[in-house]
Amino acid sequence: MRLPSRNLAATLAVVLALGTVPGRAWAVGMPQLDFSNPLLIGQVVWGAVIFAVFYVILSRSALPRIEGVLTHRRNRIEGDLDIARRARDDADRAVDELRRARHDAAAQAQANIDRVVHEARMAAEAQTHEMNHRLHADIVEAEKRIASARAEALASLPTVATETAQSLIEKLLRPAGLENAVSRAQVQDAVQAGLAASKG
């Protein structure tokens, strides 16, 4: 870092301007600024020279290092800010992805629930239909068996009634010796007439 010539020229101009001020104007209130004194002029000149030397030394040694430290710190701060911005952007994207994933999961869960409910309803309807069909078949089969048993019972009823009536007649007429007075054909005709009357 070089010493700017303008700053050095300005400093020397200020020193010369102060030197042109009458010594009495300064000496009235501040004797140490009496520029009519040659010793003061020498002190001012040497002070300016020492200031310039210190400025040159600092500008070539300490100031570049300070500027480097400041630049490094500024770059580090900017890098940290960039990292923070990227982290914030990543966090925002992660939040958006999480929201989308949660929305998609909720939609998928609702779709699965609807599908399961529909499948359960269809299975229940199919099971109910199958059960109704089976019950109807069982009822039809039972009605057939009942009708067959009834037909068999009705078919065997005249024979059973005839035999029962014949047995009763024989038991009633045996003491009188008339068990053969009524023939089986007569008993059968009487039973048939009674059954016909009951049906009518």
UniProtKB/TrEMBL annotation:
Superkingdom assignment = Bacteria
Entry coiled-coil feature ranges: 81-108
Membrane topology label: Single-pass membrane protein
What residue ranges are annotated as transmembrane? 37-58
Which coarse location class describes where this protein primarily resides?
membrane
Write out the annotated subcellular location: Cell membrane; Endomembrane system
GO CC terms of this entry:
endomembrane system; plasma membrane; proton-transporting ATP synthase complex
One Pfam family named in its UniProt record: ATP-synt_B
- Where is the secretion signal located? none
Q: Does the keyword Transmembrane apply?
A: yes
- One GO molecular function term? proton-transporting ATP synthase activity, rotational mechanism
InterPro entries found in the cross-reference section:
ATP_synth_b/b'su_bac/chlpt, ATP_synthase_B_chain
Keywords (alphabetical) are:
ATP synthesis, Cell membrane, CF(0), Coiled coil, Hydrogen ion transport, Ion transport, Membrane, Transmembrane, Transmembrane helix, Transport
Q: Tell me the PANTHER family matching this sequence.
A: ATP SYNTHASE SUBUNIT B, ATP SYNTHASE SUBUNIT B', CHLOROPLASTIC
Explain the purpose of this protein.
F(1)F(0) ATP synthase produces ATP from ADP in the presence of a proton or sodium gradient. F-type ATPases consist of two structural domains, F(1) containing the extramembraneous catalytic core and F(0) containing the membrane proton channel, linked together by a central stalk and a peripheral stalk. During catalysis, ATP synthesis in the catalytic domain of F(1) is coupled via a rotary mechanism of the central stalk subunits to proton translocation. Component of the F(0) channel, it forms part of the peripheral stalk, linking F(1) to F(0). The b'-subunit is a diverged and duplicated form of b found in plants and photosynthetic bacteria.
The record's family statement is:
Belongs to the ATPase B chain family.
Could you describe the subunit structure of this protein? F-type ATPases have 2 components, F(1) - the catalytic core - and F(0) - the membrane proton channel. F(1) has five subunits: alpha(3), beta(3), gamma(1), delta(1), epsilon(1). F(0) has three main subunits: a(1), b(2) and c(10-14). The alpha and beta chains form an alternating ring which encloses part of the gamma chain. F(1) is attached to F(0) by a central stalk formed by the gamma and epsilon chains, while a peripheral stalk is formed by the delta and b chains.
Q: What is this protein called?
A: ATP synthase subunit b
- Organism per entry: Asaia bogorensis NBRC 16594
